[in-house]
Design goal:
homodimer; mainly alpha; 434 Repressor (Amino-terminal Domain); 5 helices; 0% strand
Chain lengths: 64, 64
DNA sequence: TCATTATGTAATTTATATATTACATAACAT
DNA sequence: ATGTTATGTAATATATAAATTACATAATGA
């Protein structure tokens, strides 16, 4: 479940906590998603993408 | 949670049951996702997209 | 008319995403 | 050194995705 959340977040100089608050989840949830260990819901993926000014494909589609 | 799963499935002349089997879920789950009432997991969205030869954005991103 | 296929839906159960609380550490500034 | 910020992680609780089972109906063809 690799993804580009962490790099996109850091590119915007946001902390996990700031992203979490904007998205409406806890810091821990963001941490686990970045780590690639979670299988987040579509709604959460979309919320994250919008906050980071990315699309689903940018963040989650066939990330190397 | 509107999406383009149904139209993409029908374009490939697949039934809900055929898609469900390829994706590894039940027919009911596909039905509910198409109806837009579920908040599927990212993994499931990706499996569906691959079977339907689409990307996440094609199926789920800002569907009108 | 009857059987089959595709789909809708509802009730209950099971698996797991996410919250909550808590404690740890590294980095950095003061 | 000390305090603060950002992050990692673990244990338990809660919400909900998804499975399972079952019954319903419309469409179609034999």
């Amino acid at each position: 479940m690799k993804n580009n959340v962490r790099i996109s977040r850091i590119n915007l100089s946001m902390t996990q906590e700031q992203l979490a608050k904007k998205v409406g989840v806890t810091r821990q949830t963001i941490g686990l998603i970045e780590k690639g260990e979670y299988n987040p819901s579509l709604q959460l993926c979309m919320s994250i993408a919008k906050v980071l000014n990315k699309t689903l494909d940018d963040l989650f589609w066939e990330v190397k």
